[in-house]
Amino acid sequence: MACKPKTRIAVACGVGWFLLILGACLIPILEWVVKKKVERTVIIRTDSPVYAFWQDPPVPIYLQLYMFNVTNPIEFIQEGKRPFLQEVGPYTYSERRVKYDIKFNPNGTVTYRQNRTFQFILEKSGKGLSEDDIYCTANPVYWSLYNALKYEYPLVRETIYIATQLFDEHPLMYRPFKELIWGYHDPLLNVTKAIDPKWFYTDFIGFFMNKNNTNDGVYTVFTGETDIMKLGTIDKYNGSSYLNFWSTVWANMINGTDGTLGPPYLPKDTVTHVFSSDICRSVPGMYSRDVSSSQGIKLWRFIGPTSSLQNATENPDNAGFCTPKDNCLGAGLNNITNCQGVDFFNLPSATSLPHFLHADPRYLHAVVGLSPNEKLHETTLDIEPYTGLVLQANKRLQVNVHLEPIANVP
């Protein structure tokens, strides 16, 4: 039996409205289904698809190191002229990060250590570079000793000065790149170790001397099982929810993730945080722009806001990072002397972005040879916003030795 035209129109309208209503109902249902699928994928548990990625990331990770060679050591030390710095690099290492001693806890967290190993890759390093290249740079033994003893009596400092001369220790030294980074045995440290083994516990010293084939501590992070928006967020580091390196509660807070995995469904106005044990603090990140991975995946790039680099006058929150209290470095520098004191023997050291990017201009003007460039020297974190996976990252850091005249020492 054929339908009349008006009847067909009515049926079509009815079907259309039904499909429209059904579609409106299905959209949130489908979104819910997709979200639940994402959550099952990214939650940290042994049977989740992301577990292998989290435990032993398959993506290539590289450590690229550059050295600043002091090309005018005599004029710098004896005549007080600005040091001329020649940047050389990169020295490229493949890095592998493997989590182990993994223990899932009843409160929706997982505890682990992460072993990091580095292997030199000649073909990815600068042309003609070798780990045996010799550089002129600050002598960590010399400056560690003076920094540890600068509050002692003048006679003690003068005695140390005589010891440094006897053992041929000077403000600057020449050493192979491999020894500067991974460590070398120092005869003067061998003597100080015998005098005070509690502080000078070894005669071995290097900027990364305890970094290869080691872990940086015990992490406890949320798995996302009980609250997906806490996924990857650090609950405790070395058994504590707070650090003890800084002078305020806010500065000692451990915020964010370890930079591997974070909460999904990020809005663009999210302020991300990544905790870095290298500088003993959490670093904020703010959305900068859309980028794409090499596979064409759309990512959101986060960079550190300049407010995190400001001095205590410009940003009072940063006063907590002044150590000792009220002893503040200029903008852009982070004092890690206490943070890395055990490894560096109290070496007066500070980190910054490479070439003093976004730092107080006086640091850049104190040397010759640096050229800060945001494209080359800014730290970036590229996140797939729906899953929270970090698919690309460039952590850029410069380690500086803070040199200053010492009383009663020639």
TrEMBL record:
<comment type="similarity">
    <text>Belongs to the CD36 family.</text>
</comment>
<dbReference type="GO" id="GO:0005901">
    <property type="term" value="C:caveola"/>
</dbReference>
<feature type="transmembrane region" description="Helical">
    <location>
        <begin position="9"/>
        <end position="30"/>
    </location>
</feature>
<dbReference type="InterPro" id="IPR005428">
    <property type="entry name" value="CD36/SCARB1/SNMP1"/>
</dbReference>
<keyword id="KW-0675">Receptor</keyword>
<keyword id="KW-1003">Cell membrane</keyword>
<dbReference type="InterPro" id="IPR002159">
    <property type="entry name" value="CD36_fam"/>
</dbReference>
<dbReference type="GO" id="GO:0005044">
    <property type="term" value="F:scavenger receptor activity"/>
</dbReference>
<protein>
    <recommendedName>
        <fullName>Scavenger receptor class B member 1</fullName>
    </recommendedName>
</protein>
<keyword id="KW-1015">Disulfide bond</keyword>
<keyword id="KW-0325">Glycoprotein</keyword>
<keyword id="KW-1133">Transmembrane helix</keyword>
<keyword id="KW-0472">Membrane</keyword>
<keyword id="KW-0812">Transmembrane</keyword>
<dbReference type="GO" id="GO:0005737">
    <property type="term" value="C:cytoplasm"/>
</dbReference>
<dbReference type="Pfam" id="PF01130">
    <property type="entry name" value="CD36"/>
</dbReference>
